[in-house]
Amino acid sequence: MALIMIVMAFIAIYHKSLQVAVIASGIISLFASVIYIFLAAPDVAITEASIGSALTVVIFFYVLNKIRRIDDKK
Amino acid sequence: MVSPIYIIAVLLGIAFLLGLFKQPGANFVRFAAVITLAFPVFVSVGWLIHFIIDPAEPFMVYTAGALPPFSINLKMGLEEAFMTSAVNVLGFFGFIYLYKTLKAQGEKAVVLFLVLIMGLNVVIMTRDIFNLFVFLEISSIALIGMIFFKRDLNSFSAGFKYLIAVTVISSFLLIGIGFIYYLGGTLNIDDFIANNNGLTRGLSTAVFLVLIAVLLELKPFPANGWALDVYQAAHPGINAIISAGTATAALFAVYKLLPFGGDLWLNIAVIIGLITFLGSNFLGISQKNANRLLGYSSIGQIGLLLAVMGFSKHLGEHFQMVFFALFISHFLAKAGLFWLSGLIAKDEIKDWAVLRKKPHLLFLFGLFVFTLIGFPPFPSFYGKWQLVMDLASNYNYWWIGLILLGSIFEGVYLFRWLGYAMKLEPEEGSSIKLDWEKIIPIAVFGLLIFLASYFTNEIFPSNFNINLIPVYFVLFLFVIDFLPAYIKNTIAIAGMGFYAYYIYPDIEQDTLRLVFAGIFLLGGILTMFAGYSVKGRRPGFFPFAIMMYAGLIGLVEAENLFQFFFAWELMTLGSYILIIRGKKSILHAYNYMLFSLGGAYMIFMGIALAYNGHTSISLEMLQTASFPGWAYTLLALGFLTKTAALGFHIWLPGAHAEAESDVSPMVSGILLKGGVFGLLVLFMAMGGEQAGEHPLLYALGWLGAITALGGNLMAVFQEDAKRLLAYSSVGNLGYILFAFAFMTNIGWLTGLTYSINHFLFKTLLFLAIGGVVWRVKTHNMYEMGGLIKRMPWSFIAVLIGIITLAGIPPLSGYAGKWLFYNAVITKGWYFQGAIVFFAGTIAFLYCFKLIYSIFLGQPKDKFRKVKEAPIWYLIPQFILMIGIMVFSARPDLILKPIGDLLSQSAYFPTDPLSWENVTASTNLGYWSGYKIMLVIGGMFVVLLAWLMIMSRKAKNVKQFNIVYAGERPFTPETTHYSHNMFAPFNKALGFLTTPVVTDFWNGVNDTSHAFADSFRKIYTGNGQTYIAHILAYIVIVYLILL
Amino acid sequence: MIRNSILLLIIAGLAFIFYHELSAYHGNDGLNETANYYATKGLSEVGAANLVTSVVVTYRGLDTLGEVTILFLTAAILALMFKTSHSQKETQKRITSELLITASNVLLPVIFLVGIYIFINGHLTPGGGFQGGAVLASAMVLMLLSISGRKIKHAVLDFIEAISGIAFVLLGILGIFLAGGFLDNSIFSLGTFGELFSAGAIPVIYSFIGLKVGAELSNIILVLNQTQNVEK
Amino acid sequence: MKYFSVEYISIFAGFILLLIGLWGIISQKNILKIIISFSIIDTSIHLILVSVGYIKNRTAPIIDGPVTRADAAQQVTDPVPQALVLTAIVIGVGITALMLSYALKLYEKNKSLEIDKYKSLKW
Questions:
Q1: Interface subset of C 29-68, CB within 8 angstroms of A
Q2: CB B840 within 8 A of CB B716
Q3: Which of B191, B811, B885, D10 has the smallest C-beta neighbourhood within 10 Å, fewest atoms?
Q4: How far is CA B117 from CA B38, B437, C76, C170, in A?
Q5: Which domains does chain D have, with CATH numbers?
Q6: Is A16 in the D-facing interface, judged by CB distances under 8 Å?
Q7: Percent of chain A with pLDDT over 70
Q8: CA distance B99 to B31
Q9: What's the CA gap between B592 and B415, in Å, rounded?
């Protein structure tokens, strides 16, 4: 799992598409929250899953969307 | 006392509440915010007063019903109370300043402001490391929300850079905190310090991460580009909060956490702090953008404060005082400067010339600058003094050197800036909008500086007590500056007269001091008379003139080195302003200030070196100075900058020549004697004639001789009358230095005679020439000529002056010469003596030029109707002439007591001058001023009578009865006989006057600017590069620590 | 290339630092003094079954106040930053599928309830104000997706945010008067361990935190959603 | 074999992610990529902190079911790092939102996401 996270991190940094990068970073968060369960930290796990991965990704996408729209107007 | 927890509760509660109100209640929102911000001021200042009156145990606020380390607690002690008071006062006035800006931004901006101040309070008070992290984040974020108030691209990009930099830093902080908890078992700062003595590798790395993170919050050089960009882009009102508020809180956070790392980290703090202080100020010297420049300065000052924390072990019980003094100066001055910058609303430092239109703001600007640099009587002066002395006691000379060097760099840009503001022509149509809500905070902080100065003086060790009467008198003159000039002039003269009467009993016995006190005070009164000829208010003149005299008399009065240095700096400050008042003196005053600053720091360093191992700072301490070689040399060099010895002289000609007509005699005839007095103090400390063969004296002797030659040579080729006199002063001071360097009884007498003479004739000449210039409105001698008929009294004054100057019998100049030859022969410095003698013959040349070009020959058409110099110029001239006559006829009146003093003292017991009534004699010969006067006077009368008889038959030709033939020249001035009068000599000796020294200093200037310019290219403006700087900084510091 | 190798060198240096830190890690054998205190005394002092909650809400309540403030600040800054955009709002109608609207109409109340459940039970089970708040915010996301074009009033959110924030602070102050200090939860009776209305003020405080966090996160999303990129 | 237990793996992964994130920040030119790197760093720090508080074979710090009041101290893991991480996560999302809105604003102003393009302030 840790390996997947590391791979995802590289994808997040090096993939050309921003969408993919954002999703990759969301996956890192999600996997981290699974690890938190193993680490006996359910509170953190829930928080990370809901805020760290879900909400952050949503915000990212909102912004990506806006940027696209600025481009459209141009 | 109100529990400080309510600061959080009230600010945060109101901030939340304000979220409810929308645009319609907008004014109400800000009004409520002002009231709210007054509350923490009330609380924290209340605690501050409580702790000052009664130094009780700190008050602890516990939360959550549990005791630390298990819950978060806040501490309110003296230090916290002071720091929170500072932040809250700043918050209150900063809000008032930003009132309109915030109004434009809407109620959310008000909320940000409230939360920021709340966050800073908690950062200062909290004793929990994670809590510290959270509230550091809060204050950073609140700030980031205010950086973009200008809403232009720059402010957004600066905000983004700040954001990413702060985030990276806090990441490291967070990891560090995690491991501190893991390895140390607690998050409580006190608990950790109490229970963790040895640091294991892992723990020390964790501590490293935490400390380096909080240190990076202080923007250490060179990992601080992000902060500089913010300073440049953000609203100045916000900058004031960043520089004085956020930095304050971060500084205190560092202070709390430094004990984590033990002594090792104290040293790290010193190194980081001083590198920052030095580097930041160095890069500042070529910065043109006002806000960015203030940013450099601000970061530099914080670096110094950090270093002071690192020095806390050395400072011991003085730590609080030093820190307070330096901190409060930075805090008040920097906030004030940023606020001023907001009023100017322009970027370049040259735009500050607009301040000239508002003298009160200009005054505040000067006040802030002098406070920052550390001039007396402002707090940082006291702080720097104590810091340097304590460091010296612990052999930290390199650190002192770095601090002083950094301060010089700071002076380089601050004084250039101040000069621009005072002298540059403001741009067409530029003006300052006076918003009261902006003026009030600046004025309040200006007043607080005075309050802080008073307070610092109070808490300073009592045996250093400064006689503040002159300072108060200067303040009084500031207050009454609205009165017309003649009233202030009378008050000033009366004040000086009273002071002379007041101190006379103290120095009556000490003839040496009495002579100098006489020159300073009586001379001062004489020169002030000329001021009556000025109409109008003459704003700002009198306080600074009196400040200079206060400094000078303070030198004489000083019983210890602190008082001496205080007076020295006071004199520099006053004279700087006097000099810069002249018409074209922006550059000269700047040079003067830089040389004075450099000189003052050399003196400072010399004192510090000498002080090591002593407990007393009395003047006598210098006799048993530690490191005497270094200490004496530095002191001598420092004094020489003021006496304008060759090499340090380049400021003098311009400064003296461009000064106002009645200021030139002050700064030439009188001010230069301050440096001479300093040298005397030093020479006495060196042990009088026992030190006669000291290599330093030998070197100074040579320097004096060469200065005499160089100064006189350069004087010969001047076309500007005042410049000629100025160079002549350089030469005269060379004689004086040479004479004192003999270190013999008779040598000193020579030096003193020269000093008195120079005071008399140079004041006289400058007054006379000043009077002429006052009428003819030009300095160039070849544009004058033939003025003898129009200005006979001035002519007589100049005649007497040059006779004295040239050492022609019967006047007192000759007495000096006679003593001089005796001294040279006794000492055996023949070769140097020959040089000085040669210099003396050169003096004839320019003396002749002076009187001939101005008063004899053909008068110019435009000066046919010119009137005699104003009566207020003539009165002091006559008094001086009488003085010269008396001194010439009865030199024993002054020289005998001095000689007695010298020979009775332990310093110069051998080979005194022996007096028989008015006749002085050495084993080489005798001389009687009285008789010479009679003889020469008799010869003069005889010759005059003979001439009169002979010329009785001569036809009295009208002065203009000459008919020219031939063509009219295109540039008539250059055909004047006195233009390039000594061209042949110039061919022969001109090579000696090539401006080697000027070139040298220009080279120094250009090189340092070039270095600074190329080095600040590391601030590429790329946010990513800044992050790389931060990371590299972390790695490098870690590797160094390993 | 040179630039990259320098950067790599920096990262290597950081790796070196972290290596030192990592090598100090050797697992845990037991609770340290601080944690031990929370595990043993926490129950009697605070009365929350979830120790994390008792630490977050009570022992380190000031941190939590700060953290709520950070979200509050972020929302305020975003509103400030995009202020100019609001006035020239152009309502863009987007066609939303019927399915999504229906689904959201059904789901929304459920999600709200779940969110509220999570933060009310924060002292008993995993979860609490932040998680519940995040769930509330996700409801907001759903709402935005389904009913785009309909204005969701900032004012309502601001009101909730302000009221819950003030309530938090006031409860904290009550702690000074009624109990052992700021943010002490024992202003209300600790109740029976394990029940819903136990652990003193924790459920109340955590509810306000939940409401506040929910409102703030929603605000952030709302601002980002409603910005219409008018500036050139 | 102790290095293959979950807490070692997670803390190790945490540090690796941290380094990758830092590398991303200083090597990527795109502002959004930089922000993504920041969120990776956030996650990695949370991972490290939670691992630091973990105690082998113990349960979550919630007292119900098998964990009794009396010997809670012997049965639960450390609640403090978890509490800290909770706080840190929320702060993290706030900062990320802030960075993104800054990025959006910069893009509005200058139509570029390249960080090199924002160098008008320097020296």
A1: 50, 52-53
A2: no
A3: B885
A4: 11, 19, 16, 20
A5: 2-117 (1.10.287.3510)
A6: no
A7: 97
A8: 10
A9: 10
DSSP code per residue over D55-68: -TT-B-SB-STT--
Q: How many Å apart are CA A58 and CA A63, to the nearest integer?
A: 9
Write the DSSP assignment of B498-546 as a string of letters: HHHHHHHHHHSS-HHHHHHHIIIIIHHHHHHHGGGG--S--TTHHHHHH
Residue whose pair of structure tokens reads 């590069």 in the numeric block: B1025
Q: In this complex, how many residue pairs, one in chain A and one in chain C, have their CB atoms less than 8 Å apart?
A: 48
Structure tokens at B43: 């609380």
Print burial letters for C113-126: b (CB count within 10 Å at least 16), e (below 16).
ebbbebbbbbbbbb
Structural tokens at position B992: 């000696």
Going by DSSP bridges, is the β-strand pair B73-76/B919-922 parallel, antiparallel, or unpaired?
unpaired
**What own/partner pairs with CB < 8 Å and gap ≥ 24 does B966-972 have?**
none
Q: Which helix (H) or strand (E) holds B60?
A: strand B59-62
pTM summary value:
0.91
Pairing of strands B925-928, B919-922: antiparallel
Rounded CA separation B515/B536 (Å):
34
Distance CA B80, CA B216 (A): 22
Q: So what's the ipTM on this one?
A: 0.92
* Shortest alpha-carbon distance between residue A8 and chain D (Å): 10
The rounded distance, in Å, linking the Cα atoms of A1 and C73 is 36
- For residues D87 and B134, the answer to whether their CB atoms sit within 8 Å is yes
Cα dihedral across residues B280, B372, B544, B567: positive or negative:
negative
- Comparing CA positions, the residue from B577, B572, B528 lying closest to residue B550 is B572
Band (pLDDT 50/70/90 cuts) for residue B705 is very high
Q: Do B160 and D45 touch (CB under 8 A)?
A: no
- 3 state SS for C91-146: CCCCCCCHHHHHHHHHHHHHHHHHHHHHHHCCCCCCCCHHHHHHHHHHHHHHHHHH
Q: B250 and B217 in contact (C-beta within 8 Å)? A: yes
pLDDT of amino acid B82: 92
* D99, D109, D122 ranked by CB distance to B163: nearest: D99
Separation CA C7–CA D25 (nearest Å): 10
Overall size of chain C counted in residues: 232
Is C229–A63 a contact, with Cβ atoms under 8 angstroms apart? no
Beta bridge partners of B75: B60
Helix %, strand %, coil % for chain B, to 5?
A: 75, 5, 20
What residue has token string 């006829």? B889
**Chains in contact with chain C (at least 3 beta-carbon pairs closer than 8 A):** A, B, D
Give the Cβ contact number of residue B989 at 10 Å.
15
User: In this structure, are residues B623 and B685 in contact, taking their beta carbons and an 8 Å threshold?
Assistant: yes
Q: What is the mean pLDDT of residues C41-60?
A: 77
CA B867 to chain centroid, in Å, comes to 40
Three-class secondary structure assignment of chain A: CHHHHHHHHHHHHHCCCHHHHHHHHHHHHHHHHHHHHHCCCHHHHHHHHHHHHHHHHHHHHHHHHHHHHHHHHC
Q: What is the CA radius of gyration of chain D?
A: 20
Q: Is A13 on the interface with C (CB under 8 A)?
A: no
Q: Which of B303, B301, B310 is nearest to B261 (CA)?
A: B310
B131 touches B122 (CB < 8 A): yes
The single-letter code of the amino acid at B557 is E
Distance between CA B430 and CA B428 in Å, rounded? Answer: 6
Residue B434 CB neighbours (<10 A): 11
B906-955: pLDDT as tens digits: 778 877 788 877 788 887 778 887 788 888 888 888 888 888 888 776 66
Residue A43 Cα, gap to closest chain C Cα (Å): 5
